[in-house]
């Protein structure tokens, strides 16, 4: 912002969004002062860096609103099941998971074990991996495994999200 812009030359954009061309940073600061606004570096990695004449407070507010909106939309949906869940019930869970993923939500699978089922955690981890593979085939868009199936006490959990 203003004197924090280190580049010698910048590509300047006026408050209306029109390009004013490439000029020295000092000239760009003078133009910003003429408008009574701040010189804000919006693309520092571009060659030359892109600066825009705008109200810096308003810019920061818009940035925070964008960031908040992006985080508000994603929620974690949990699907609980047992190791010996019947195929039809499993198919219902997969349909539910695919609808959550299509809406952009993360899905957490929880396999709840009881008694001697805990001795066979490797088998249930493999089963959960197979479920995730089936889900990949069912959903029409790519999914990303956020946390791979892992045993946590009496539960095995895995989290997936749309890629």
TrEMBL record:
One of its GO terms (molecular function) is ribosome binding. GO terms for cellular component: cytoplasm. Residues 1-70 form the Translation initiation factor 3 N-terminal domain. The keyword Protein biosynthesis applies. One of its GO terms (biological process) is ribosome disassembly. Pfam families: IF3_C, IF3_N. Keywords: Initiation factor, Protein biosynthesis. Residues 75-162 form the Translation initiation factor 3 C-terminal domain. It is found in: Cytoplasm. NCBIfam families: infC (TIGR00168). Belongs to the IF-3 family. Monomer. PANTHER family: TRANSLATION INITIATION FACTOR IF-3, TRANSLATION INITIATION FACTOR IF-3, MITOCHONDRIAL. IF-3 binds to the 30S ribosomal subunit and shifts the equilibrium between 70S ribosomes and their 50S and 30S subunits in favor of the free subunits, thus enhancing the availability of 30S subunits on which protein synthesis initiation begins. This is Translation initiation factor IF-3. It comes from Persicimonas caeni.
